[in-house]
Amino acid sequence: MKRLILSVIVLSGSYFLFNCKNSKQMADSQADMQVGRTPGAPLQENYWKLVELNGQLIGSTAEGQREAHLKFRKAGNVVEGSISCNTLRGTYEMKDGNRLSLSPLAVTRKFCANNKPEGRFLKVLEKADSYAISGDTLFLHRARMAPLARLEAVYF
User: Fold this and answer.
1) Shortest CA distance to 121 belongs to which of 76, 35, 37, 61?
2) Which residues contact 63 (CB under 8 A, 6 or more apart)?
């Protein structure tokens, strides 16, 4: 009987310690994602393709248009990209705590057949003030709230 009680105590203690350790790892992992520390693609020198905007998936790119994307260049802290049939360019500043500041962006003003997503993407870029990276996914946030945009790294 003593062996049975001792075995139950040992197993219960082991179970408790194992779950506490896993809960802490899970909490640490979630905290890392929130502040962008999860190992993954670097923000700079990557091609980031827009896949979701304000919770809505971005469909395929129309014929004759470029996919919406961003590139954060190290040289001169330049951000450049494409939105539908127009291009954008500006500068950015990375700050502590994965905060991000974008300058007003210069955008070409070609007529696009469907420029609705283009305007929404520009508004998101104006609002974004922080980012998080998890694996090959970049999230742009405002005040660390729900992601405004989700982009995925594309490797050529």
Assistant:
1) 61
2) none
